[in-house]
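Final paragraph of the annual report: two paired records, presented back to back.
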Amino acid sequence: MAESEDRQRLLGDVDDVSPAGRQAAGGPGKTLPAICDPNHLLHRVVVLVFMCFLGFGSYFCYDNPASLQTQVIQDLNLNTAKFMQLYAWYSWPNVVLCFLGGFMIDRVFGIRLGTIIFSLFVCFGQVIFASGALVNRFWLMEVGRFVFGIGGESLAVAQNTYAVNWFKGKELNLVFGLQLSMARLGSTVNMNIMGWVYSKFAVVVGSAGHTTLGASLMIASVTCLFSLICALVLAFLDKRAERILDKEQGKTGEVIKLTDVKDFPFTLWLIFIICVGYYVAIFPFIGLGQVFFIEKFGFSPAEARAVNSIVYIISAPASPILGFMVDRTGKNVVWVLIAVVATLAAHMMLAFTFWNPWIAMSLLGVSYSLLACALWPMVAFVVPEHQLGTAYGFMQSIQNLGLALIAMAAGALLDTRGYLVLEVFFCTCICIALIAVVMLYFVDYLRGGDLNRSAAARAKLQKEASSEAE
């Protein structure tokens, strides 16, 4: 009974920990300080800090080409099509690698070793990428982006799996919000600082060029090294918690098979459809948004960049706040429905009106943050724990496939039909997501409304189930 309670506390199912429990964790006659006690909320907060910074480096460096687009094209004498290959080499492998990454977390490496390996891929990939710029070899930069991509999305899967392992009972929506906030903080910092770093190196070197570009990208790799350190610390803390709480006994003992994908519940497939339908109307639009705001609204390039980046800027502070709100209220499916409807309204404003685009983009930023906080945790509510890595990996994989395909389709539409038809296309994608959300709501309602329970109600049910099992 005591071991079961310890495991539930680690997952966040119990707020208060008795002195006897802490004494048992520290050994006979020993009481662990709160910050060192895996049972205690303060220790989980420490774990959460490292968990959030785990993905900071990969998100910071992912958008290095975008933040230095002019410099990359000029210093390496590229055209735009060749420049975009830096993103293609990242995205296409992840259609497969995300799924395999989740599978390897569940079955081969485990969460701790898997996270370290993926962090190493990210770190080495960025170093190879920067080295290619230093020696003016674009093919080497492509190799670096490929290696970086192998680790990038799989690291996000590992980060999600860590979050569920530590916070499944409570605060999970808040945790996902904080992780999204830190990720977007990395993207925002990259967009605003890499140009400054490049200019400083240009002064030191004496001129712009591939050497300056490579040195700037090598400085960016420091953020990946920092994330690798976070992976090592997380592995130590997770292993320590497993030893103290005898957490191994809480595992299911089941072995996942790749064929288990066909057994994923219908609700999970609806979540996948929502994920793809929604995000393909966000990221490709932001990628093409700067010229849109210049052409339709007459903005200057600086104003267009500002309004185009507001989605990420809003998501940084809004995500944890909205995650906390979703935790308190529950109603995950309802919040996803609100986010999808708000996003559809934002795209329709941009497509069919000349209202100030700050209104629509601000609404887009809030709804984007809300959807991430409410949608991604629902995976943990519909699949067994031993399939979480595979489920999140598959979700990332089809998201990458959708983004790659829709990005190409969006570019073709923009070249042949213009921005109005492109916006109608994005609205259509959002409508597909909306249909899937409505179906998810009714399916969940018929099955008892589990997805709309609050974190507190979910924790109470888990505690009661654990007591009955004893």
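The closing record of the year follows.
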Amino acid sequence: MPKKAKPAANGQEEGPVPCKQVKVEVAGGPSPLNFDSPSGLFESLISPVKAETFFQEFWEQKPLLIQRDDLALATYYQSLFRLSDLKSLCRQGVYYGRDVNVCRCVSGKKKVLNKDGKVHFLQLRKDFDQKRATIQFHQPQRFKDELWRIQEKLECYFGSLVGSNVYMTPAGAQGLPPHYDDVEVFILQLEGEKHWHLYRPMVPLAREYSVEAEDRIGRPAQEFTLKPGDLLYFPRGTIHQADTPPGLAHSTHVTISTYQGSSWGDFLLDTISGLVFDTAKADVELRAGIPRQLLLQVETTATATRRLSGFLRMLADRLEGTEELLSADMKKDFAMNRLPPYYVGDGAELSTPGGADCLLRGGQLPRLDSTVRLQFRDHVVLTVGPDPDPSDETREKVIYIYHSLKNKRETHMMGSEETESHGLRFPLSHLDALKQIWSSSAVSVKDLKLTTDEEKHSLAKKNLIFYVGDRVFIP
């Protein structure tokens, strides 16, 4: 599991955070995708299908094939990742298993051809040309800026982690056997052509990956060939396999995936612990001990089952009447592990050297008559929960605002144990004021729902609060 660090106390945070995103265009002209907003990006990605139509008719329901005879889009897709990019990537230092898999589909099974240690381009190309092996490159957004740009916007749009893998397969070859995944999948065809077979799910909206034997999956429900600029979507659980047609050039496609572990079941598991914690504080029945030797029983007794059923009904009733649904881990994990905001250059110009109190040109600080708003709204989550500080024996609730502004792109979706959380901690008394900032395009400092002017002024100076008074700082 990723290492989880506690945010600094009292709404303070050490170190600078990015405070400005820079819009850029792809070399050779404007991007055919719309990066003005997360929704704009997604709409342009699935064009000409409308987002409303997509979610009503296709999302989690059935595949969508979009074939487009668009030279500009095909050229842009080809720029995202090419087979020829491997040479420079190998020079940067990539490793088998972690960054690259080499594999073939042999008799309906995946045969892995990885070597040990660092990947050398000549060996990689030899396996590709002579062994007809597929090269799978893990999480290329760590190296390719435009994929970072796309996936960062998609994480804002879906509110879920978005990963990717690139697959490069020689002509007349297949890398993977029929299988299904536990993620929603968007395929972008980058180079060459890929022949696809899709089968009806055996486990709709599957929660895990599984390889399926050819004799179990029946005839394909759909069969088609993708060309550069085409897009394919299919829900998790959709059985699929693909090969590069013989006699043609190699195929390169990128699989962009999301919504792993983002079901209602996952959310219920995440929120139920907080609901039980709160209810037990108010209800003595939940604090009463279980029967003696209950844990020694082979089967749960009928009495215990009835008692648990009653507690669940009580929790459901309490849930109906609450406005505060607590998320124990999902929000935090999303903020910890997602991509940072997209920027160009080394990011030095995006930092605030003086920290929390230097977000304004000339170092001017907001006053009580200033107007403020939240910046980087799409990269910030607010949570309410028990204080994990071991010195706090009362375990009182506090507010955590987690953000991804200091996350490391290089470790995105790599399961790094060094991942840390970044954010601010506030007392529960600040909740109404923070909600006020959250729900408003701008709010006057003097109107913040806090008791004293000192508290209002202090909150307005924090890293994630943005002054838009007489002298505007442009994000």
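The radius of gyration is 26 Å. This concludes the annual technical report; the extension proposal builds directly on these records.
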